[in-house]
Amino acid sequence: MTGAGTPTTASPTVLLDTHVWIWLVEGTPGTISERVLARLESAAGRSALRVSALSAWEVAILTRKRRLQLTRDPASWVSEAITRRGITEVRLNSAVAVAAALLPTPAPEDPADRFLLATAFSNGWTLATRDADIISYAAVAGISVLDARN
Predict the structure, then answer these.
(1) Which residue from 93, 88, 99 is spatially nearest to 121, judged by alpha carbons?
(2) Which domain holds residue 48?
(3) Domain for residue 9, yes or no?
(4) Taking the model in full, what pTM does it have?
(5) For 14-52, what is each residue's pLDDT tens digit?
């Protein structure tokens, strides 16, 4: 994959990986670097933050498996987190589903990661993540990534 959304040309629109979305909404200190947090807040001010509907699914799954504890039920949390200023929900569509299935190897095996990568690439957006596997793959595949670790 090359073209729109190459790592050297960061898009002003940022797609949040599920963990980055959770940490941004929950205000979890130390999980997102100050530099990246400032960039996310700037994107929010321009209404240029996106979250995939798949991330809502992941939040519910993680809560059900007790790998994530929220202060309220997942449906309420997701509803409020999606309406946060500057965040827009991105619905899944067939073009992204096909792109996720056809990512060049060695793409991550996790279907959620594949959908997020395909969504970012298909729209020419930057994907904000701390996931080392996604960051490594994106660099090879020409997908713009905002490394939330630094």
Answers:
(1) 99
(2) 14-145
(3) no
(4) 0.90
(5) 999 999 999 999 988 889 999 999 999 999 999 999 999
| CATH code where residue 74 lies | 3.40.50.1010
Which residues of the chain are under the pLDDT cut of 50?
1-8
pLDDT of residue 11: 66
Q: Does residue 2 form part of some domain?
A: no
Print the SS3 string covering the chain.
CCCCCCCCCCCCCEEECHHHHHHHHHCCCCCCCHHHHHHHHHHHHCCCEEEEHHHHHHHHHHHHCCCCCCCCCHHHHHHHHHCCCCEEEECCCHHHHHHHHCCCCCCCCCHHHHHHHHHHHHHCCEEEECCHHHHHHHHHHCCCEEECCC
pLDDT given for residue 85 in this prediction: 79
Give a yes or no: residue 64 inside a domain. yes
How many structural domains is the chain composed of? Answer: 1
